[in-house]
Amino acid sequence: MTARVLVGVKRVIDYAVKIRVKPDNTGVVTDGVKHSMNPFCEIAVEEAVRLKEKKLVQEVVAVSCGPQQVQETIRTALAMGADRGIHVEVSGKDYDSLGPLQVSKILAALAKKEEASLIILGKQAIDDDCNQTGQMTAALLDWPQGTFASELVIEGDKVKVVREIDGGLETIKLNMPVVVTADLRLNTPRYATLPNIMKAKKKKIANMKPGDLGVDMTSRVEVLRVDEPPQRQAGVKVESVEDLVSKLKEAGRI
Amino acid sequence: YLAALPELHQMLRQTCRDYADKELAPIAGQLDKTHTFPAKQIRELGAMGVMAVEVPESLGGAGMDYLAYSLAVEELSRGCASTGVIVSVNNSLYLGPVLKFGTDEQKKQWITPFTTGERVGCFALSEPGNGSDAGAASTMARQEGDCWVLNGTKAWITNSYDASAAVVLATTDKTLKHKGISAFLLPMPHPGLSLGKREDKLGIRASSTANLILDDCRIPHGNLLGQCGMGFKIAMQTLDSGRIGIASQALGIAQASLDCAADYAHKRSAFGAPIAKMQAIQFKLADMAVAIESARLLTWRAALLRDAKQPYTKEAAMAKLSASEAATFVSHQAIQVLGGMGYVTDMPAERHYRDARITEIYEGTSEIQRLVIANQVLKEYQ
């Protein structure tokens, strides 16, 4: 039985919120805006909890990097069934410039410290859409990776992953320890039950800083400017299908 | 708690809101149209612990407090008011009295199977001849050997067609008037029990409502809940708690109506601008928001007093009164904001309007709530 699964959970602006760019164009408005767990991270947590319920893993550890508020996100993971949490405190400028490079360094350090043999992450976050953390983490650890997973099966000391790729589905077999990133169809996350919400209260969340893990938080990326997408222009109405086809030809679309 | 709910309650509120948004709101219109009991959803809610919020974990419940229960009912009702009342009746009107007045044996038999969502219960107090005048109950219960024999008719019973058990109030000694009423546990279905026609209601149509007809209905002696003559007291205490549940349901309906109206106001344009810019609309939305927020705080206060084991009869009546009147006011104004769109089934506003209306009537009419409140207020000045 695999000892430990590390699951990364990111606190992001809720998917239903209408995003507004800050007046100084340095980023988006986050103050007072509803945040929740990244949907792909929810899928990752669900998968880890299911592995534990099948007795294929012993312990699920939920990790999040950020300021005080990310503890809510960790607690949601605990309410879904994770056993304990780790909050890596990152705030201020470091949090503003926090990206996949720093997070993957943190996750790699934690994986070694916690002796995890499986890391499950969401394939990407819905705020930055980077789709890099899983891949970078695997590279830093020199572990195999199964990204865009729509199916995950543990077979002894190997992991079979079905990946969603452009051409269809690709099935690969990886030797543990591995990094897997969750895609949409991997599972449907459970709703936190009331008894589990109560239990989550008693589960432990450890606090630490990136420095404790020997991680350098310097960013190599500087955001110059954030702008709203251009206003959508009104379309053109046509009278008939022939009209539509000729207009599309004119525009070079067909 | 005026500034912020505890983390536990925030999480519970969020999980119920997520469930309501994803699983209830999309089907609420269809459930209403077809008068369909949401059996699958009730089972899922049972698995989440929401069908037995206050019941201790040892009996299969979630072991949480009444504030948590109120939040759960409000959020679920925001998605589907029928589901909200089904959850509320099971929690407050059925499990409530058994939890409070039942023996350990009765709790095992009549509580645990009703925590999972597989079975729901109901509460039978009203009769065709008396609603508000609960003391005039004419359903009789007599002892015959080792049985109780029940005769009479109960009216307006929520969950009737879907329930596996009922708490029934019947007169055991007519000479003692309201002190001669007792409470009984009735399995459903049962010989001697038949159901009247399904009522065709204005709203909350996914929950079943019908008469319970008792014709020499025999139940074991051990099915007496509490002691003989305790029935009226059981009923009144049960309704005090139930009022917090219904207040929460009304809040959910009101909030859903406000959400609908405010969203529409941003998008609908008239006279060259979104109607949200017009003072007439803004004043409506402000009044709606105040009505909801004040009723919500009254509801939370009643729940918190109950959790602190303090007297809460007055506050529960105030909560139910203000929340139900808020629901009818807000849903009425929401249709007004939507104009013609509020009158058609394309938008949920018309369903909220129909769902809201019953909250001023069941579990104590607004008039009864006023009497209860006045009674408490006057006591303070004696």
Features:
heterodimer; A: 254 residues; alpha/beta; 9-stranded mixed beta sheet; two-stranded antiparallel sheet; 7 helices; B: 382 residues; alpha+beta; Butyryl-Coa Dehydrogenase, subunit A, domain 1; Butyryl-CoA Dehydrogenase, subunit A, domain 2; Butyryl-CoA Dehydrogenase, subunit A, domain 3; 4-stranded mixed beta sheet; 4-stranded antiparallel beta sheet; 10 helices; 10 strands
Helix content of chain B: 40-55%
Shape of chain A: globular
Beta-strand percentage range of chain A = 25-35%
Return the string of H and E elements of chain B.
Answer: HHHHHEEEEEEEEHEEHHHH
Describe the oligomeric state of these chains in a short phrase: heterodimer
Characterise the protein shown here.
The complex is a heterodimer of chains A (254) and B (382). Helices cover 29% and strands 28% of the residues of chain A. Chain A has seven helices and eleven strands. Chain A has helices at 39-53, 70-80, 92-96, 100-114, 133-141, 194-202, 241-250, and strands at 2-8, 11-13, 35-37, 57-66, 84-89, 118-122, 145-155, 158-165, 168-175, 178-182, 205-208. In chain A, strands 9-8-7-10-6-1-4-5-11 form a nine-stranded mixed sheet, with helices on both faces. In chain A, strands 2-3 form a two-stranded antiparallel ribbon. In chain A, helix 4 crosses helix 5. Chain A is globular. The model of chain A has no long low-confidence stretch (mean pLDDT 95). Chain B is built from ten helices and ten strands. By secondary structure, chain B is of the alpha+beta class. Chain B has three domains: 7-120, Butyryl-Coa Dehydrogenase, subunit A, domain 1 (Orthogonal Bundle); 121-231, Butyryl-CoA Dehydrogenase, subunit A, domain 2 (Beta Barrel); 237-380, Butyryl-CoA Dehydrogenase, subunit A, domain 3 (Up-down Bundle). The A-B interface holds A 36, 72, 75-76, 79, 191-195, 197-198, 200-201 and B 7-8, 10-12, 14-15, 18-19, 44, 47-50, 53, 57, 62-64, 68, 72.
